[in-house]
Amino acid sequence: MFMQEGGDVMSAQQLFDTMPEKSLVSLTAMITCSAKYGELGKARVLFEEMEERDVVCWNVMIDGCAQEWDAK
């Protein structure tokens, strides 16, 4: 996925915002992107709004929290 390669985060967000239905995969991708670029609050909002969560999205949030803690 282009976001993981340092792609255009704003374009990814714009595309995500236009999606009529957001899947588990698309939500997890945006959570990953937000957490990776230091927007853990945004990632958490997306995570909390998810109707379904799997081990991947949980791991993304755990990793994001750990990265933020290491940065402090």
TrEMBL record:
Keyword set includes Thylakoid: no
Keyword flag Metal-binding: no
Entry superkingdom: Eukaryota
PPR repeats mapped onto the chain: 23-57
Alphabetic keyword roster: Repeat
Record GO biological process: RNA modification
Alphabetized InterPro entries for the sequence: PPR_At4g14850-like_plant, PPR_rpt, TPR-like_helical_dom_sf
Listed GO MF terms: RNA binding
Pfam families named among the record's database cross-references: PPR
Record protein name field: Pentatricopeptide repeat-containing protein
Organism, scientific name: Quercus lobata (Valley oak)
